[in-house]
Specification:
The protein has a single domain, classed as Glutaredoxin. The protein is built from 10 helices and 4 strands; from the N terminus they run βααβαααααααββα. The chain has a 4-stranded mixed β-sheet, with helices on both faces. Strand 3 and strand 4 form a beta hairpin. Helix 2 packs parallel to helix 10. The chain is globular and about 55 Å long. It starts with a strand and ends in a 13-residue tail after the last helix. The relative contact order is 0.20. The model has no long low-confidence stretch (mean pLDDT 92).
């Protein structure tokens, strides 16, 4: 039996995704499962489900405090609410698609979220991207040109379709053999499912 995989669907601009981005590799490694990093356009699926978080003032205020608490609980750096909403043209997300195809999505994602949440730089800003990509040893002009290509735009749409097909409606989400888990607080449960260690997967005893 081959190693189980978690499809990790997330959005550059999702603050809860940051918590999972900083935790998923270690948890998956310890459980003996692999992770496929899959950026997608959560704005599309949220609109389809009539979810408009940015207009819900009380919920947004709660979100920042909740993220601060969860980050502290997990020992993850978090200073203060970042520039949000961010990446208006989805450029950081499209670069994520390029990175995923090139095999460097994880370091790009971590570097991008660090620049956004810790250094308070705007995601998708050309200057921010140039700094992040240079840090990773990539040619910023070459990568950004590829991110702006019709092929990459179509690929982001394809990944969004894939997320939708699993019933994904928010970021972060985790899919294991078609089983979908939503939210950073479900990461451990998704890992357990991938490792066949979830209570629901235990054989049922019949009498």
């Amino acid at each position: 039996m081959g190693q189980k995989q978690i499809d990790f669907f997330y959005f550059f601009g999702s603050c809860y995704a940051y918590l999972s981005i900083m935790r998923i590799d270690k948890l998956a490694r310890e459980a003996g499962v692999s992770v496929r990093w899959r950026p997608f356009n959560v704005r599309t699926v949220m609109a389809e489900n009539n979810i408009a978080l940015r207009t819900q003032t009380a919920k947004v205020k709660y979100m920042w405090r909740d993220i601060e608490r969860r980050a502290a609980s997990h020992g993850i750096p978090f200073v203060q609410p970042p520039i949000w909403p961010t990446d208006p043209d989805l450029l950081a997300n499209r670069v994520g698609i390029v990175a995923a195809e090139g095999g460097w999505c994880e370091p790009y994602t971590k570097a991008s979220f660090h620049s956004w949440l810790i250094k308070h730089e705007a995601l998708g800003d050309p200057g921010t991207l140039t700094s992040v990509l240079t840090q990773l040893g990539k040619d910023p002009n070459e990568v950004i040109d590829e991110a702006n290509s019709d092929r990459t735009i179509a690929k982001l749409a394809t990944e969004t379709d894939a997320a939708r097909s699993f019933g994904v409606f928010g970021s972060p989400s985790f899919v294991v053999d078609g089983e979908m888990f939503w939210g950073d607080d479900r990461l451990e449960e998704a890992v357990a499912w991938a490792a066949s260690g979830h209570k629901l997967q235990e054989p049922r005893v019949t009498h």
